[in-house]
Amino acid sequence: MGNLETFKDRISSRDAKVCIYGLGYVGLPLALRFSECGFNVLGIDVNEERVALMNSGKSGIDHLPDERVAKARANGFEASTDFGRTGEGAALIICVPTPLNRYREPDLSYVVNTAERIAPHLRAGQLVSLESTTYPGTTEEVVQDALATSGLVAGEDYFLVYSPEREDPGNAKFPTHKIPKICGGLTSGCLEAGMALYGAAIEHVVPVSSPRAAEMTKLLENIHRVVNIGLVNEMKVIASRMGIDIHEVIDAAATKPFGFTAYYPGPGIGGHCIPIDPFYLTWKAREFGVHTRFIELAGEINTNMPRWVTDRVIDALNSAGKAMSTSKILILGVAYKKNIDDLRESPALELMHLLRAGGADIAYSDPYVPEVANGLDLESVEISEEGLKSYDLVLLVTNHDAFDYDLIREHAQLIVDTRGVFREASDHIVKA
After folding, report:
1. Which helix or strand (DSSP H or E) is residue 115 part of?
2. CA 20 to 30 Å from 25, out of 43, 61, 174, 190?
3. Would you state the CATH architecture of domain 219-301?
4. Contact 310, 358 (CB under 8 A)
5. Could you count the other beta carbons within 10 Å of the beta carbon of residue 336?
6. For 252-285, how does the pLDDT look when each residue is reduced to its tens digit (9 = 90+)?
7. Domain(s) of CATH 3.40.50.720: residues in the chain
């Protein structure tokens, strides 16, 4: 492809604008990283409030400091809702959601809509990269088809790659540039262009043979996690029945220097990836006559965890001579993981609905989530000695570092711990 050397030269000299579609938990960190590496970055998002927030120098995401956005703005970063500006970019990176629909099937509407809105403005020599997690074949079967209305041919007129996001929100040890980047190109020229782009911002880029291989790589990573979390959640239930502390067992097993990786149980699984991604593969596998029993079983176990925790809450209250229908319960932490503000697919939401359906008077405290809608309409409450004493039970769901666990241990009447924070044996602490 004659444009390849020109593209690589523009990347090398930083004479190339990077357009990123979707300024959420994936797109914004990537935009900030490219800006920090000397690129002119344009973020395009359909959310006008988010665009205005970015242009005011604020991130709107707790673990991404406003200072980084303000610095990027000073270096030329801009947010817009105008897809007509697509032609300004040399590299076009799609970072939009890929949820499931109500039938638990892949919903690629955000990807398709974005590609269709890019197509009228696509020009020769540009690179298009899809980062959204999806099933193998999406880049070639969906994105390429949507872009074909431009009249340009992928692999001949423009470059097309798949490079899955691997963000771990709130993980200070692995910021965007420290996480190795997988890249699969439609052609060898596409791959070379993709490697040049990401190599300018990410410390290590790993090439694979095709977009399909890259798409499958991301799914394997997350399915590996969901299956092992399902296994340890099932082990937790068994250990609980036997009167064994599963966290003690895991810590002991983790002393083996080979052949074991520690995974920890919890109240369920959350976030945009782990509860969603396996279903992309199970759906696609049916096209090839494969029933993914192992993956689906793990999903079933993890999905049932909120109900199991609810049963433990009921048992704990009964042991204290109380009924859930007349109890006040404080939920600690509603984000799907510690030290972030992300509520997506959080098991806390299902738990709150289950507890309320059982008649409990519920409240929650989360320093990262000031309010919860989702049919609950609650605002976070402050934790205090008197406040803790007023609740019949405190349910620890998300173990934020900001919580004062000594205060909670000392003044809560009854604690149900789903995260293994309170390791010592105590009559008023129940493991779940």
Report:
1. helix 109-118
2. 190
3. Orthogonal Bundle (1.10)
4. yes
5. 26
6. 999 999 999 999 999 999 887 778 888 889 999 9
7. 4-209, 304-431
Q: Do residues 348 and 330 touch, judged by C-beta distance below 8 A?
A: no
Task: Report, as residue numbers or ranges, the catalytic residues.
Answer: 273
Tens digits of residue pLDDT in 82-93 = 999 999 999 999
User: Beta strand pairing status for 415-417 and 361-365?
Assistant: unpaired
State the pTM of this model: 0.91
- The residue whose two tokens read 């997506």 is 344
CA distances from 60 to 23, 140, 175 (A): 10, 33, 18
The string of pLDDT tens digits covering residues 407-428 is: 999 999 999 999 999 988 899 9
Q: How far from 225 is each of 230, 253, 422, CA to CA, in Å?
A: 8, 18, 24
* C-alpha to C-alpha distances, 259 to 145, 254, 255, 256, nearest whole angstrom: 44, 9, 11, 7
CATH no., domain 4-209:
3.40.50.720
Confidence band, pLDDT 50/70/90 cuts, at residue 2: low
Choose among 57, 120, 50, 60: nearest CA to 85. Answer: 120
